[in-house]
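Case study 2.
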Amino acid sequence: MIDTDTLAQDIVRHHTGTFTPSTPQPVPASEGTSPVYRAALAACSALGFIAADARCLARAWQARAERTDAVNAATWPDEPQDFGLQALPQQNAFAACPRALGLYAVLPDAAWVGRMARAGVPTVQLRFKSEDAAAIAHEVQAAVHAVQGTGALLFINDHWQAALAAGAYGLHLGQEDLDAMRPDDLATLRRAGLRLGVSTHGYAEMLRADAVGPSYVAMGAVFPTTLKRMATAPQGLGRLAAYARLMQSYPLVAIGGIGAEHFAQVRATSVGSIAVVRALVNAPDPEAAAAQLQRALHAPH
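Prediction:
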């Protein structure tokens, strides 16, 4: 007979060093009656996981216990089948991109895209903010031209119609943008061969991303960032490592507040690519900064 309170305490005791410092969250209403589910829900909430993620984890703890006929508080769940991820090979997956996207520069306009592509940055993203459809189309087309002959892979943030029309290599969507896409739109992008990257900020969003079979998964924000208001707290390296174990079938990109001083720690989580924004656009010499960051990314462990 499993004692729910004892199991919850054991889970917290074994994993508090990995996931703290985190602010404990209220325990959400239970969606199951299994003692393992209820214990994991309470424990993951105590470890700081928001309600949607705590529920995902509780379901995974229960699924693993039923699959293995055992409960192990010391081992964090990270098997895809316990979370309900798609079986491999996926049906209706987006076109593949390189397993290691390398240094991934997120940039505000086409001029920056061209500058960093010429500096040898292997993956660039145009994150152009505008409500003007003509300006968006012009900037996306300019970015596509800017990377020609450089070997850089160009992803367009959000503006999928313009990315499709301009023949961009790929598209990057946040969770709200993904939710706004119709199934027919996603099918159109798949047929066109565009690669798709999706931002995630925890377990529930990783499962949402997996459902569309993206080309890569971005995970963050790893550290505090002032670039945009985040709905979730910084994930930290402990969570990043756990996410990477679960999502290891995908190319993975870490993003959010990452500077050169963090590269070794991020690489140790087995995430193969690191996205940067301020470390390049705020650098006194962006080309030199790009070279330094690439050296840090590929330095021997």
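The longest helix spans residues 51-68.
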